[in-house]
Amino acid sequence: MSITPADPPELKRQFPHVDDIADWRAKQSIRLLWERVFDLEARLQAATTTVGDLVNATNRQDDAITLADRKADEALAITQQVEQETAETGGSGPVVSGPLVWAWIDMKPTGAPGVAPGSPGGAPATMTDWQNYFYGLTGIPTIGDPADDYEDKMLDLVAAGMKVNPVPWEIPSAAWPFFGLSVMIDAGGHPRGRIWLPTAVPDSLGYYTHEIQFIDAAP
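^ thats the sequence. predicted structure below, dont judge the formating
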C-alpha cells in the first residue's frame, strides 16, 4: 500500500484590520501571525486529505485481507475434511466407483457430536428426521435408487442457498437455508457425495457438523 501525501492548498490570504494598525512593528508582527495561521490551515487541510486517503486505502486492504482469509479458511476446511474422511474410511474417498445409488452412511465415529436439536421453526431433530428431510429435498423416495444424477440435484440445492463447505468454529443456525444443512463441494465445483448435518457442539477439529455419505456403490 503506497500513499502520497497531499500538497497544502493555496489559500486566499487576507489580513483584516492590519492596515488599521498605526505602529509599523506591531503591524508587521500581526501580519506574520496571520501568515502563520494561513500556513497552518493549509497544512491541516493537506493532512486531513492524506488521513482520508489512508483510511480509504486501509479499508480496501482490510476488505482484501478478509476475503483472502475467508477463501483460505474454505480451502483449509476442504483439505481438513478430506484428510479426516480419508483417515476414517481407511483411505477411500467419498466418491465411490461403479453404479451409484442413494445411501445414508454415518461417517462420524462413536462418541462424535450428535445432530443439533430441532427448533420451533421446524428443523429436523433426530437422525431419522434429517434423513427424511434430505430425501424429501432430493425427491428420492427410497434409499438404493440410482444416483447417477446426484451432482445435478445437489447443485440445484446449492443454487437454492444450501451452505457449502462449513469452516471450523462456524456455528450453524436453523435460520440458515435448509436449517444449516451443508454439502461438500470440491475445488472443481462438483459435489463429493457428502453432506454435513449441524451439531450443537464442535468436534475435535472445531467443526459443528456431523458427516453423512449419501451415495454408495450399487450392490
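The mean pLDDT is 77.
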